Amino acid sequence: MLKNILSLIAIAATVVSATTDIGSLVKVARADAASEVVMADANLSGHGITASFKFLPAADDTGLQIIISASGLNQTTKYPFHIHTNVVPSDGNCTGTGGHLDPFGIKAAAGANYKCDSTKPQSTCELGDLAGYLGNMTASANGDYAANYPDSILTFTGGNAILGHSIVIHGPDNARLACANITGYVLSGSAGNSKDQEEEEDNSTHSGASSVSIAGALAVLAAAIAL
Questions:
Q1: Which region ranges are annotated with the description Disordered (predicted)?
Q2: Is the pLDDT reported for residue 73 higher than 80?
């Protein structure tokens, strides 16, 4: 556990330092909007559940570190969660997010025999089948869930990119209980004048660069210490 905490501290320190030195963080919606994504997140709510997913570069530069926290869960329920192909529609209806992200057709090839093997996720799991290779959410006595996972498969850009997609938390009957888009952040110095940059950047994102990154870093540390 200490090794994990030290790794997360190093990641958090890097994000804080970079943002403090260079300038503000800017939201980007798509994986091809910029190549220098430094973090991503998704904040979900629905059916009494609130959850936060944060994605940071892994300490060894392979894949991403996923930091998850959730509340409002039923202690006796297992909650699958996945990355879905489509973004959440404007009406917030989670059914509009489509199926699980599977750019390499793993499930299509397996058909009825599909079974995600957590020991071989790259060859047996849909890219978005997070619960398949990380396990379902299960609540503590007070209805909370917190975890951090190293994920060697997911990336911010390229064929395994998570940006431009969404996260959905399901109930045991596969009902879609909560969903949100995955939003990436780049340092403003590397974003340039990209036309894919989100147009609705509020002033707090531009002027509160250090506070945004520091808040994210503190959330990472808190999640690590809590485990």
A1: 190-209
A2: yes
